[in-house]
Amino acid sequence: MSWSAEARVRELGLEIPDYGDPSSGERYAAMRPFRRSGRILTLGSMTPEDRWGRPVHPGRVGIDVTLEEGYAAARYAAVNVLGLIRLALGSLDEVTGFVRTLTFVAVGGGFTDINKVTNGAADLWVEVFGDTVGRSTSAGIGVTSLSRGNVFEITASVQTRTSADE
Amino acid sequence: MSWSAEARVRELGLEIPDYGDPSSGERYAAMRPFRRSGRILTLGSMTPEDRWGRPVHPGRVGIDVTLEEGYAAARYAAVNVLGLIRLALGSLDEVTGFVRTLTFVAVGGGFTDINKVTNGAADLWVEVFGDTVGRSTSAGIGVTSLSRGNVFEITASVQTRTSADE
Amino acid sequence: MSWSAEARVRELGLEIPDYGDPSSGERYAAMRPFRRSGRILTLGSMTPEDRWGRPVHPGRVGIDVTLEEGYAAARYAAVNVLGLIRLALGSLDEVTGFVRTLTFVAVGGGFTDINKVTNGAADLWVEVFGDTVGRSTSAGIGVTSLSRGNVFEITASVQTRTSADE
User: Fold this and answer.
1) How far is C2 from chain A (nearest CA, A)?
2) Neighboring chains of B (3 or more beta-carbon pairs < 8 A)
3) Which of A123, A160, C66, C107 would disulfide-bridge C142, Cβ 3.0–4.6 Å?
4) Cβ of C42: how many Cβ atoms within 10 Å?
């Protein structure tokens, strides 16, 4: 039987935000949440914010956010990315491969375990999509600050089953 | 009547640098200003520098650059990107969609309104290309420093009407 | 006679790591070292680490790493990227163009000559692939910290002679 990301989401009991709901869609003014070109779906960057724009574990790892909280924030943002994918494709099962992931972690105080924070996102996608589809090329960068004080920001592109331009 | 980005540039009175002029082209030594592959045009990163390489509003937002100056610098860099697009395609009207934008802002002093700075670029592109073409997926990151003390740096890719490899 | 990157590697006497060797491949757990989609090969980010994961010139340029050491670290990471390309394509001669390069340099103390560090990577690729293929669009960003204390991190995508999805 083939792997289904949507079935895995149900098994894991993940709550994925519905960005088709206008109250959330309004957050994107001069930006697009996604763009499709050929078989590549480019996703706008996501932060670990809830539906009301409240940051989860805001601050900087190494100062006022622990490694464990940073990992949880990365996982939270990765779940939000699933919401974007559903908005773009209708179903997570239309994804045939994660192509590229760039992650940024707000850090300070000499903190250098960036990869241990960003694993929160990488691990989530492997849990949902499995090894073949869910593993992505990746970079994790420790930066000064992110919008609205968020501790984490992630931008990704995925390959889709079908081709489209929109 | 269909939207014309070139007509909009004239209406807005924007001065776009001509990177076909050698004195400017010389800035790209071991780097390319752009690369086309299929319908994707990948643009080299641009800073808010004038034709003579002088940074506009250099420094860091939150320390020696205001939010308004940062916004103006972002807009200035976004206009420079238009010069790159003309160099690559001959006309802005060959662009069918902004795909991906990554923006970096040099910040300090706990400044976190990154998105309010990077809107300077996003707003300019929507003014020139309209909502459908001009809105891009985007990420805005607050960093320690940028080349030559610039306050802003932007890298983008766009979809083009025709396919090419160069 | 046409340019051969593999011949150039032999002329330059470069030692390129063999990432097909399991002891190194193990470093990629929840991440992929590369993903191919159409003619674009997206490469995972590389740091200036040797085969045993030891960082070359760790620290921050402007504090405890000199500009020259930063340049050397960038060159070292760019050689590691060649190892990834061989893992993905079998031969460097399958590359028809460097498309996009993002580089991050850990900096401090007001250091802003980011581009002089990242040139270590750009120069190496031009030495190996020549101007037409080896020059890439590029961005160089000065950041707070990178994984495992590395001073440099680079992520790139290249165009390949043939099309594939894997």
Assistant:
1) 31
2) A, C
3) C107
4) 25
